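Q: Could you fold this chain for me?
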Amino acid sequence: MSDAITPPAVPAVRASDAERDQVVALLQRHFADGRLTQAELEERAGAAYAAQTRDQLRALTGDLPADKQQARPATNLDPCLLCLLLCVCPPAGLAYWLLSRR
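A: Sure. Below is the predicted structure, expressed as C-alpha cells.
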C-alpha cells in the first residue's frame, strides 16, 4: 500500500476593501519615492482594486521594499524618566508613555 495522503490545499483568503485600500496607499508612497512610474502605479492600483485574494495583493508589492512604518524600531521606555515625568508633570509623563507605545 503506497497510497500517499496529501494534505488538503489551503484555500485562498479573500481580500477586504480595507486591504485593497492599504495596498493602493502603499503603491502611492512608492510612486512618491520614485520606485514606480505613473503607468506602473495605475496598472497596479487597478489590479489591487480587482484583486480577490490576499495573495493577489501581495504579488503587487512583492518587488518593493518593506513598508517604512513596519521597519521602524520600537521606542524604548526609560522607567526612571517616566517616573520623574509622572511626579513633576503628569500630562507629560502620560504623553511620554503613550508615545513610547507607538
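A (continued): The first helix runs from residue 17 to 32.
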